[in-house]
Amino acid sequence: MPWNLDSSRPIYLQIIERVQMDIITGRYQPGDKLPSVRDLAQEAAVNPNTMQKALSELERSGLIYSQRTSGRFITEDKELIHQMQKELAAAEVSAFVAHMKQLGITPEEIRQLLAETIEEEENHE
């Protein structure tokens, strides 16, 4: 999947978001070894130092960890991964609700729109 990085936002933050999403969606499973910094940087078409910075931030968050001679791995803490998923989902919902309120849509109308949209999506599956 292409990285599609946007030059208007810090690249390392977009890399963090992308790797988080890859972990949450299961592209990288708990315990999986990540490709090398060099390989990831080449795939994303970024400087290896930028990739290194992003991966260091992910290590601080606990989503990945390093083993000195073996490389970087995805945490095996499924609860941490689930918590990250909930946090990202909550942020998306908050942004959506704030945008709907800017459009002048009431909370009840938001609920109704969501219910209708979910029902339509379920009918198309």
3D architecture notes:
The structure is a single chain. The protein is mainly alpha-helical. The chain is built from five helices and two strands, in the order αααββαα. Helix 2 packs across helix 3 (48-61). Strand 1 and strand 2 form a beta hairpin. The chain starts with 10 loop residues before the first helix and ends with a helix. Helices cover 63% and strands 6% of the residues. Strands 1-2 form a two-stranded antiparallel sheet. The chain has two domains: 11-76, Arc Repressor Mutant, subunit A; 79-123.
Summary keywords:
125 residues; mainly alpha; Arc Repressor Mutant, subunit A; 2 domains; two-stranded antiparallel sheet; 2 strands; 6% strand; transcription regulation; WH_DNA-bd_sf; HTH-type transcriptional repressor yvoA; Tscrpt_reg_HTH_GntR; WH-like_DNA-bd_sf
Give the secondary structure arrangement, pairings included.
Elements: H1 11-24, H2 37-44, H3 48-61, E1 64-67, E2 71-74, H4 78-102, H5 107-124
Helix pairs in contact: 1-3, 1-4, 2-3
